[in-house]
Every structure is written in structure tokens, then in C-alpha cells.
UniProtKB/TrEMBL annotation:
Record's subcellular location: Cell membrane
Keywords: Cell membrane, Membrane, Transmembrane, Transmembrane helix, Transport
The species this protein was found in: Shouchella lehensis
Entry similarity comment: Belongs to the binding-protein-dependent transport system permease family. FecCD subfamily.
Top-rank taxon: Bacteria
Keyword Nuclease in annotation: no
Residue ranges of the TM segments: 15-39, 67-84, 96-114, 120-140, 152-173, 199-218, 239-266, 307-327
GO MF term set: transmembrane transporter activity
Name of the protein described by the UniProt record: Iron ABC transporter permease
GO process terms (BP): siderophore-iron import into cell
CDD domains assigned: TM_ABC_iron-siderophores_like
Length: 334
């Protein structure tokens, strides 16, 4: 790495340290002010002063919890993608590709379609499903250790199995499918303080643990052989990091549904600018993921008014072309 490259990356890190929090703040304010009911700054001040007004109820009980849930989901998915890409040393690794999201989707489908009496426990079902899927993947890939390639192959198999079982459930209970379609598309419609109360302990603990895992993640980037020479317990670190990624992904999917491309694209965007050093990549990806999901959710609510487009569809429409652009430019090397 030349001195110029080091200087350039340091400069970009400083700009991102300033720009990403501003982007998050602007996205949050956009979500507060815009929607079916548009707020002005005066309306917002009056609503906060008189919390019994309709505007105050919309702000406090509808928009604010929705934005908080979106921020948590975006930060968790971006952190999970960053961790998995670092552990697997594979640019395609993210929760949706290795099967963790599929496990959450299957469990949520069971709660909403097969066992509707437990529909209120959908977030808990999705969270547990993600953890179980991860444990199955790791168990299937274990043979005197779990190599990244085996984990990805096992994840692809679990992904396919969970998808088949989910399709079977939807066919068997075709009269109830409409209730699960918005969740499968991913979005935050109807999210309230119940969802905030459910997700914040897992999200906060997971994000803090992710920041504490920066050093092990940087060691994993050196390769198994080098990390072992430095005295690192490679297999134990890999297991804990993947479990942490599953915790983060499960927390996000439990309240956001099947959101794609956040954990895949956001780390790439940040990595192209500042490199792979997890000391910067991981926290910047968290902020960037939160800002992206909050901003995209605001667009989904307002641009297509009076129809609310599921944010997962909009993220896929934005994320897929960008990912293909990176692939075409050879910035993603397999």
C-alpha cells in the first residue's frame, strides 16, 4: 500500500465518520416529517408539547417506533454481513445466502400460517429459527473443524430446505397466505413499541459484542494458518463470530421480515472506500446500514403514496443493480 493510498483512506475515514451520522440523522428526520400526514417543524413542536393531539399520537406511537425498529434492523443486518464476509473471506456471504434468514422465515411462517394462535410470537419464532438454522449449518459443516467453504455449502443446503418447507406450508394453508406476504417481502408497516421492546435488548447486546469482536475479526482476515501462528483459537473464534452474526440477523429478521441486500451491499460500499480494517469497516457499516434502511423505508412510505411499498422490494431494486455494477467492475473477486 503506497503512502498516497494510506492518506486517501484516512481522509475517507474522516469524511465517513462525519457523513454517515449526518446521513442517519437526515434519514431519521425525513421519516419523522414525511408520510401520509406531513409534519412541519411547528407541527412537530406542538405535537411534542401536547401529546394528546392526533399528530402527537401519530408521531409517538407510529413513526418513532417504526424508525427505531428500522434503524436497529439495518445496523444488525449490516453488522452481520460484515462479520460473515470477514469470517468466510467470501464477498457473497451474508445472512440471506448462508441460510440464517431462511431459518427465520420458516419459523415465522409456522407462527403466522400454521399456528395463527401464536401469531403474536412471530418475532420470537423468527429469532429462534435463525439461531437453530445457524447451529444446524455449523453442525453439518463440522469435520475436525468447520472451513468457510463447508459452512457456505451447508448454508446453501439449509437455505434450499427451509425454502421448500416454507413453500409447502404456504400451499397447505393457502387460505392464510395473504397474511404472511408482507412479512416475506420485508418491511415495517404496523411496527410499534412492542417490536422496539422485543428487539432492542438483542440488537444492543449484539452490536456491542460485534464491536468487541473487532480484533478477532481482523485476525480471521489474516487466514487460518496465520491466525493460529499468532496463537488465536481459530475454530472457537469462527464459531462465536458466526453465532454473533446469527444473533444479529435473527434480531433484524424478527421485526423486519426478509430484508435482502443490506448485509451484502453495505459492507461492500464501505470497504471500497476505506478497506477491510474492521476497526473502521464494522462501525461504519452499522451506521450506514441503519441510515440506508431508515431512508429507504421513508421512500417506500412516501414516493408511492397512497400505496406503501414493502421496503424489502425497494431495497432489492436498489441493491441488485449496484451489486451487479460492482461485479462488472471486478471490485468483487470470487
Amino acid at each position: 500500500m503506497s503512502e498516497l493510498t494510506v492518506q486517501t483512506r484516512n481522509k475517507r475515514r474522516k469524511w465517513l465518520a462525519i457523513g454517515l451520522p449526518i446521513f442517519l440523522a437526515v434519514s431519521f428526520l425525513t421519516g419523522i416529517f414525511l408520510g401520509a400526514v406531513t409534519f412541519t417543524l411547528t407541527d412537530l413542536t406542538e405535537a411534542l408539547q401536547n401529546q394528546t393531539e392526533a399528530n402527537a399520537l401519530i408521531l409517538i406511537n407510529v413513526r418513532l417506533p417504526r424508525l427505531i425498529v428500522a434503524a436497529f434492523a439495518g445496523a444488525c443486518l449490516a453488522a452481520a454481513g460484515t462479520i460473515l464476509q470477514g469470517v468466510m473471506k467470501n464477498p457473497l456471504a451474508d445472512p440471506s445466502i448462508i441460510g440464517v434468514t431462511a431459518g427465520a422465515g420458516l419459523a415465522a411462517s409456522i407462527a403466522m400460517v400454521a399456528l395463527p394462535q401464536y401469531g403474536f410470537l412471530t418475532p420470537a419464532f423468527a429469532f429462534v429459527g435463525a439461531i437453530i438454522a445457524m447451529l444446524c449449518i455449523y453442525t453439518l459443516s463440522w469435520e475436525k473443524g468447520a472451513s468457510p467453504l463447508k459452512i457456505i455449502l451447508a448454508g446453501v443446503a439449509i437455505n434450499a430446505l427451509c425454502g421448500a418447507l416454507q413453500s409447502g406450508i404456504m400451499i397447505l394453508y393457502s387460505d392464510r397466505v395473504q397474511g404472511i406476504l408482507p412479512w416475506l417481502a420485508g418491511g415495517f408497516q404496523g411496527r410499534g413499541w412492542f417490536h422496539v421492546e422485543f428487539v432492542w435488548p438483542y440488537a444492543v447486546v449484539g452490536l456491542i459484542l460485534a464491536l468487541l469482536a473487532i480484533r478477532p475479526l481482523n485476525l480471521m482476515l489474516l487466514g487460518d494458518h496465520t491466525a493460529k501462528l499468532l496463537g488465536a483459537p481459530v475454530e472457537r473464534m469462527r464459531f462465536y463470530l458466526i453465532l454473533l452474526a446469527a444473533l444479529l440477523a435473527g434480531a433484524a429478521v424478527s421485526v423486519a421480515g426478509l430484508l435482502g441486500f443490506v448485509g451484502l451491499v453495505v459492507p461492500h460500499m464501505i470497504r471500497l472506500l476505506i478497506g477491510s480494517d474492521s476497526r473502521y469497516l464494522l462501525p461504519f457499516s452499522m451506521i450506514g446500514g441503519a441510515a440506508l434502511v431508515v431512508f429507504t423505508d421513508s421512500l417506500a412510505r412516501t414516493v408511492f403514496d397512497p400505496i406503501e411499498l414493502p421496503v424489502g422490494i425497494l431495497l432489492a431494486c436498489l441493491g441488485a443493480p449496484f451489486f451487479l455494477y460492482l461485479l462488472k467492475r471486478n471490485t468483487i473477486r470470487l
